[in-house]
């Protein structure tokens, strides 16, 4: 233990923030796994219609989150060990990893903001393609497949129809639990899909904001501690 006074305080503060960072990585990993195996999203994204899979852009984002969570846990451990050992090499490596992670998080945040409605729009278009076939008055194998897709959407989201017409609402078998037809109180599947992914985007955005703040403090403390170690006579 070579650093003393304020530098020693910064050392333990850095250790604390790194421990929080490590825990945050575990939380992000847990949230990502929850998003991956969430019943609603899993059911909707496993749907196939006319040999086409539902859009999987959401899963790509989730897999990125899983990788980020694992990387954060590794970097957090590296920072904790480097702070306790007062190793400039480990702290320098930790600082470099933090800068790269922070830059990736900012880039991902900008991309996510610009494409925040892409996932819901892709699923809405997928739903609409099944909707057109499902309300076709001519019975066919394609229509029967479309009806099954619509029923799965409706039962999963507790919705029925697009909300802009009443054609589908006249077919009670397609609505969840065959509820009475009432366009005024029926819930649009378009709105349900938007709300479903908007809620998950808020969770991801809040987690990213908290992590970004922690990373900024960690970078500051790491630089201060490295300077203190370098100026310590023992080193």
Q: What labels describe this entry?
A:
235 residues, mainly alpha, two-stranded antiparallel sheet, 2 strands, 73% helix, 2% strand, rod-shaped, transmembrane helix, Tetraspanin_animals, Tetraspanin/Peripherin
Describe the structure.
It holds the Pfam family Tetraspanin. This protein is mainly alpha-helical. Helix content is 73%, strand content 2%. It contains 7 helices and 2 strands, in the order H-H-E-E-H-H-H-H-H. A two-stranded antiparallel sheet has the order 1-2. Strand 1 (48-49) and strand 2 (52-53) form a beta hairpin.
Give a summary of the structure in a few sentences.
With 235 residues, this protein is mostly helical.
